[in-house]
Amino acid sequence: MERRFPKGFLWGTSSAAHQVEGDNRNSDWWEWEQQPGRIKNGDSSAVACDHYRRYREDFALLRELNQNAHRLSIEWSRIEPSEGTFDARQIRHYRDVLGELREQAMLPMVTLHHFTSPQWFARKGGWNSPDSPRAFLPFVRRVVEDLGDLVGLWCTINEPSIYAANGWITGEFPPGRHGDLVAQYRVTSNMHRAHELAYAAIKKRYPDAPVGLSHHKFLLVPATARRLDRVAAAAAQGVTDRWPVARGRLRPIVAATSDYIGIAHYWGQLCAFDPRRPQDQFVRRFNPPGRLTEMGFVSDPTWMRGVLAGLRRYGKPVYITENGLATEDDQWRETYLHEVLGEVHAAIHEGVDVRGYFHWTNMDNFEWSKGYSCHFGLIAVDRKTQERTIKPSGRAYARIATSNAVVGVN
Ligand code: BGC
């Protein structure tokens, strides 16, 4: 059966500067990666996919896959390497990058902060500092002024909840703190405020440009239909989503000032009430039966529908800013892709206004603390030669984009 998507649906892939560009030396991540034990297998981003120099060929490959959009981030630490100093050469570089995407008929979705910050900003306390939203703003204004005419969709900040949890709870990201709940709240709230300021700055210059942010949705599902398990799952979901404090109230970030809701969804876990776990708020989280991806989680394509259904009440357009599978089994990726897009299609028919899907990711790249051990790409990259090879899943995605339909899912 053929499932056709609405006319004008965006088919793209998603990426982030630090994970693909290479030599991103002014960012806090660069310093972090040089510290022993931070990254799996002793990897560091190093030259990454050398995309900073190879972006033209990389976009040509996406064009070959019939993409009509691409999500990428602009690296703050390149544009503003020291506070208040803007690098005209780097601005020109990103003008070329965005211009090239336009030239190759792909609409750019531009992320302004995707996990990396300039070292000068991190030294001042980073996103845990009360000054952080204001410190972000000059960069935003500069991008709006100098690059705004080339941007199609704006995504101010990538996944505040993941960023705050990884930096201040699990210690996987810089600054590597553990269990600092107060800081975690502060960071999400500061990022939320920064989003609001960025939103206003963009709208002032481009009132019609769609502006939103990407919200990570890790799904926590009750292990059984028992009331206690349902309560446990709902409570754990609240903690995971880490709603920011705005004007003295907890507010879901998806309801923030935004023209669309950006959703990154990959995986989930089951939750059961467990009286023996006071340290975990009486919740036991575990993987459902099923195959684990390289990230160590189960990815059930049917969860996407639940995530999307929960957004209907906001009445806003939705873009899936990220979704994908970390595996070297490309056949699995292809099957997952078909199934998950079947779920997206069903959600659209149930009244969720999904306008586009950005697969994570175009090329195998630097997966943060997991280094190069995860393979999310539709395109393989030889780590020695940088040679790119389109995987069969990439060809399958191209067929979907070309026909604006998924075929053969029930
Ligand atoms: C992030 C990406 C990351 C992906 C897979 C998302 O949370 O935005 O940068 O590569 O997940 O882990």
Explain how this protein is built:
The chain is an alpha/beta fold and 410 residues long. It contains 13 helices and 17 strands. Helix 7 packs parallel to helix 9 (181-205) and helix 8 packs antiparallel against helix 9. The protein is globular, with a radius of gyration of 20 Å. The protein starts with a strand and ends with a strand. The model has no long low-confidence stretch (mean pLDDT 94).
- Let me know the average pLDDT: 94
Number of helices: 13
- The residue fraction in helices comes out at 25-40%
Rg (CA only): 20 Å
Major sheet strand order:
2-3-4-5-6-10-13-14
Q: Which blocks of ≥5 consecutive residues have pLDDT under 50?
A: none
The major sheet is characterized as: 8 strands, parallel, barrel
SSE run? EEHHHEHHEHHEHHEEHEEEEEHEHEEEHE
Oligomer: single chain
Q: Give the termini separation.
A: 7 Å
| Small-molecule components bound | beta-D-glucopyranose
Structural class: alpha/beta
Number of strands: 17
How large a portion of the residues is in β-strands, by DSSP E? 15-25%
Overall, the morphology is globular
